[in-house]
Amino acid sequence: MKRKSWLVFGVMVIILAGCGATEGNTKDSEKSANATTTTTTASATAKSTSSKTSTSTEVSETSNDSSSSVTASTTKETESSVAKKQSSTLWDNEKASVLADFMASWGKTMNQSYNRFSPGHNTDLYGLRLPDTVLSGNWTMAVDGQPVSVAWSDDGNGNGNADYQLVAVYSDAENATRMGEAHVYFFTLQNGVPKVFITQQNQGNPDNYLYFAETQNMELRNGFTNIVKNGQTDTASKTAPTENKITNMKQAYEHLRAKDNYNDDLLYNDMGEGIDEYGHYWQIKIASKEWRAQGGTGTLAQVRVYENGDIRDALELTEMY
Q1: For 190-210, what is each residue's pLDDT tens digit?
Q2: Which of 104, 110, 203, 260 registers the highest number of CB atoms within 10 A of its CB?
């Protein structure tokens, strides 16, 4: 009987031990499952957070790129608009003011004093009221002997079918003391190209033509061109000191003698000094001793010797030597 009791007791112990092991394994399995679930959840959360962060960064970068692109595009459009406006504005009040300063400075270098004129505010060139006499058609502007049309323009962009757009008029006629000394300059644009014309005409003609020629004074031509294109003059040339070869009649005489190889047959007479479109000059009459000895005047030519050393025929103003 005791033997059966111990046998039953042993079986019960074995059964209880097996249940404990099973419960332990079950708990361990649940722990493992919980750990796996936690790990999986954490991983998923990390991926989700990473994905959101990445997406946020990409959206921010895209937004910044878009903003930069819009800003750059707007800047380019603004610059293009400004450039277009500047290129289309050939003449305005600001450029007119720059030209006024330039003419005051340039006039001093030429020993001349210039005033500005415009429609309704005219200079008097030996009885001609300019520019109104030409703008009204009573007289015709002629360039190199050919009649041309001219119209006043505030912006230089064109007025009807005129050949030239007149944007400024300057003259020293009010300050001229002798016949033929007055100068009138027409500052014009021909299809956007700056051109400066000069007239010193002091006589009438049957056609009522006022004859102009394009100025040969390079400082004046370049100054006007720079103002039209850049809104300012060439400051380098404006501030550079002027170096003249000739400053008085004695130097003009010596310069001319040297050009004539110191020919002893020639006589030189002082005919005075003046200013024309080529600059300040000294006029000298050249005569031949031999021809004068034969009973004639002996006059060979009259020339103008300029500050820069150029020599021109006094009548035709063609370059000599």
Answers
A1: 999 999 999 999 889 999 999
A2: 110
